[in-house]
Amino acid sequence: MNKQIVAGIYEAFGRGDLAGVLSPLAEDVAWEMPGPAPFSGARKGPAEVQQFFVELLGSVKIDEFKVDAIVADGDRVVVLGSETCTILATGRTVSQHWSHAYTLRDGKVTAIRLYEDTAIVASAFARSATAG
User: Fold this and answer.
1) Which residues partner with 78 through β-bridges?
2) Of 5, 30, 88, 107, which residue is the least packed, with the fewest Cβ within 10 Å?
């Protein structure tokens, strides 16, 4: 069941259905993306997670987003995938592999930790000294 709940989040994301992404989240969900990317950091609750997506989708164009595997072990679910996106402010393209770790309780997502190459993303956001 937990694997299907998490798979549904990615299906909703693929459809552009933000409400579908947020609906399985617990009211006190802890969301964390460590690293230096502009939208990295810790967030608490669905409203702050929604703000993450607003920031992300306002700053990047997702060219390809692919889920490679979803592995579940009880209340833990790990998703492995890859993506290519274009940074809107600089036009730079970033390709990376990622993993997302979920914890669920009673059919609700209580914690999400995103493991991505946020350093390469931050670098793609940086303007070169000659670009102005």
Assistant:
1) 71, 101
2) 107
SS3 state of residue 36: coil
Q: Which two tokens stand for residue 15?
A: 């459809």
pTM: 0.91
Confidence of residue 130 (pLDDT cuts 50, 70, 90): very low
Q: Which residues, in sequence order, are bridge partners of residue 80? A: 69, 99
Helices (DSSP H) in the chain: which residue ranges? 2-15, 18-22, 46-59, 118-125
CATH number of 2-125: 3.10.450.50
Token pair of 19 as six digits: 């409400």
Task: For 20-34, give the DSSP string.
Answer: HHHTTEEEEEEEEE-
